[in-house]
Amino acid sequence: MKMIEANNLKKSFGENEVLKNISLEVDKGDVLAIIGPSGSGKSTLLRCITQLETVDSGEIIICGDTLVKNNEQGKAVYSSKKDKAKISRHLGLVFQSFNLFPHFSVMRNITEAQRIVLGKSKQESEETAVELLKKMGLAGKENAYPCELSGGQQQRVSIARALALNPDILLFDEPTSALDPELTGEILKVMRALAAEKMTMVVVTHEMLFAKNVADKVIFMDNGYIIENGTPDDVFNKTRNERTKAFLSRYYSGE
Rounded distance, CA 242 to CA 52, Å? Predict the structure, then answer.
C-alpha cells in the first residue's frame, strides 16, 4: 500500500525555487531516508507533506486521501479544511528542536493532543503516555519538565508525543542535529526499534550510517532536485552519479 505519493512538487519562496519537480513514493512499513547538503530542500519537502508549508503545484496523496492536486491552470488546489484535518491525523512529526511545551510536564506534553485531537479521557491518555514513556526508556519522568531533561530525553518525549496520536506515518526532521554524539545514539536506538516494528517512517537525516543500515530506500537531494533514489546499496555502494559520490566523499572525510 502506498502511504505517501508525491508527484511533481514545486515550491518557491519568492524568487528562490526550493523544490523542483519532486516525486516520491513511500510504501507501508518502509523507512525512507532523505539525505543531502543543507539547503537542498529536504526539510521543506517534509514541511509540505505535513501541511506546515504549501506547494505551488503538484500532487500529494496520503494513505489514499488527496491533500493537494493541480487545477486546469497547473496551480495547487488543496482539499477542504475537514479533509486536511483528517489527512493530518495519518502523520506524526518529530522536530529537530523538540518543540515541547516548556510550561507543561512530560505527562501533559504527551496527553494534551490526545485529549484535544482524539477526544480521549484523562485516564486513557495518561495510560497511553505511561506505556510510551516506558518504551522510550523514560519511566518515572512523567512529572518532570523539559528543562529538567537532557536533549536526548526531550527528543524521546517528542517521539512519544507523536506516537501517542497513533499515526500511520512518522516523519523526522533531522531529529539528532541538536544533540551531541552520545545523545544521538539514544535517538537512533529508538528509531531502529520503530523500524524493526515496521513503522512507516520518513527521516531527513545527516546520520549516514542510519540511512545506510536502517532505511529501505534513500533519496539524495541537492539544490531542490532529487538527484538519486534507490536502495541504500544503490546509493551508498553502487552509485555512478558524480554529485552523490562527491557528497558522500566529503561527508565521510569529515569536511
Answer: 33
Q: End-to-end CA distance of the chain: give it in Å, rounded.
A: 40
The span from the CA of 95 to the CA of 118, in Å, is 21
Q: Alpha-carbon distance 100 to 229, whole Å?
A: 33
Q: How far apart are CA 173 and CA 53, in angstroms?
A: 14
Dihedral Cα 59, 210, 172, 45, nearest 10 deg? -30
Per residue of the chain (255 residues), give pLDDT as tens: 899 999 999 999 999 999 999 999 999 999 999 999 999 999 999 999 999 999 999 999 999 999 999 999 999 999 999 999 999 999 999 988 888 999 999 999 999 999 998 999 999 999 999 999 999 999 999 999 999 999 999 999 999 999 999 999 999 999 998 788 888 888 999 999 999 999 999 999 999 999 999 999 999 999 999 999 999 999 999 999 999 999 998 876 554
The count of other CB atoms within 10 Å of the CB of residue 251 is 13
Nine cell digits for residue 131? 506505556
CA torsion, points 150, 154, 156, 157, in degrees to nearest 10? 140
Closest to 183 in 3D by CA, of 252, 134, 137, 133: 137
Rg (CA), the chain: 18
Q: How far is residue 23's CA from residue 158's CA, in Å, rounded to a whole number? A: 28
Find the helix or strand (DSSP H, E) in which 153 lies: helix 151-164
Locus of grid cell 485516564: 123
Nearest-angstrom CA–CA distance, 102 and 180 = 21
